[in-house]
């Protein structure tokens, strides 16, 4: 398995301005309103641009955990991205590369905004390597489904 294979993406058109969608996604505690895994979280400081950190609270049927995220791209209203800097029990150094990146891109189109969400592994941490290829493949597939759920919920939130 190649690291390039560990990615997921999806897109939808939402009848809302890119500015509004960007503002919602970049207010990271609000991700809990549309994500099937993230249930919210908190900013670690008053900073909100590139380099700002956020602790996301996550829940699945198997477990719950917190993970630190670092804003990687903050280009309003076009793109917002963050890197997963690891779980709170074993975080990665903030000055280094994260393990995965979540990206949202917002493109004005007729009828609203095309929202593209993507996830990709940036590097294999020891925990990811230990999981093995079957678990990593299942993880990518899980994230594909989660992206579709998130985009569907985001669309419903803005169009209802």
Helices, by number, come to 3
How helix-rich are the residues, as a percent range?
25-40%
- Low-confidence spans: none
Query: What is the terminal separation in angstroms?
Result: 41 Å
Rg calc: 15 Å
CATH homologous superfamily placement: START domain
Number of β-strand runs? 7
> Quaternary arrangement of the chains shown?
single chain
User: Which CATH-level-2 architecture?
Assistant: 2-Layer Sandwich
Shape: globular
Rounded mean pLDDT score? 92
**What fold name goes in the CATH topology slot?**
Alpha-D-Glucose-1,6-Bisphosphate, Chain A, domain 4
Q: Strand sequence of the main sheet, in spatial order? A: 1-7-6-5-4-3-2
Structural class: alpha+beta
Q: In the residues, how many domains can be counted?
A: 1
**Which CATH C-level class is it?**
Alpha Beta
H/E topology pattern: EHEEEEEEHH
β-strand percent reads 35-45%
Largest sheet: 7 strands, antiparallel
Short description:
By secondary structure, the chain is α+β, with helices and mostly antiparallel strands. It is built from 3 helices and 7 strands. A hairpin with a 4-residue loop joins strand 3 (53-59) and strand 4.
